[in-house]
Design goal:
9% of the residues lie in helices and 27% in strands. It is mostly beta strands. The strands form 2 sheets. A 5-stranded antiparallel sheet has the order 1-5-2-6-7. The chain has a two-stranded antiparallel ribbon with strand order 3-4. The chain is globular and about 40 Å long.
């Protein structure tokens, strides 16, 4: 069994709206290793009409983002790739994170938005996401009333994905971290 370290910073963290998707019992392996932060500063923002947290790939800007470091097997990593629509929307890349408990440095997969609208850098940049904070609340998929997420709210160029006009109902609903 191949194991992978994955850093989650948004709705997949413990106590957040999509955490269940990380821990669903699929006969797979996943284990929380520690609370951690990115070794490099990145912008963590909340954007879109659904108030989704995104980590933008703009190294050196923003904060050392705090989240959770998990060890997962291939099945969980594949499920996360599908949820995050890697590589069509989020790009999964290895990066260093630092344990908040003992300062150990780990190399982990992180899901970034790489080709984003530059005006997103004007949004407030967070150090730690919480849906229980003072920011607008994340809108869970079942409350979106059939309205699909529009990738062009975030992305600045056409990538290898189906446009929102051409998409079916399942194409755009799997996009959160």
């Amino acid at each position: 069994m191949t194991l992978h370290k994955v850093f989650v910073y948004g709705t997949l963290k413990s106590g957040e709206p999509n955490h269940q998707k990380l821990i669903e019992d699929t006969g797979s392996y996943r284990k929380l290793i520690c609370l951690a932060k990115t070794s490099t500063k990145y912008p963590l923002i909340i954007a879109s009409q659904y108030n989704i947290p995104f980590m933008l790939y703009e190294p050196g800007m923003g904060n050392n983002v705090e989240g959770e470091l998990y060890e997962v097997d291939d099945k969980v990593l594949k499920a996360l790739d599908e949820l995050e629509d890697h590589p069509n929307f989020y790009i999964r890349e290895q990066n260093e994170v630092i344990s908040l408990e003992d300062s150990t440095v780990h190399t982990a997969w992180i899901y970034f938005i790489k080709s984003f609208r530059k005006e997103l850098l004007e949004k407030q940049m967070l150090k730690n996401y919480s849906n229980n904070g003072s920011f607008p609340k994340y809108v869970t998929r079942y409350l979106r009333l059939g309205v699909n997420f529009k990738k062009d709210e975030i992305l600045c160029t056409t990538q290898s994905f189906v446009s929102s006009e051409e998409a079916g109902p399942d194409d755009l609903n799997n996009l959160e971290s």
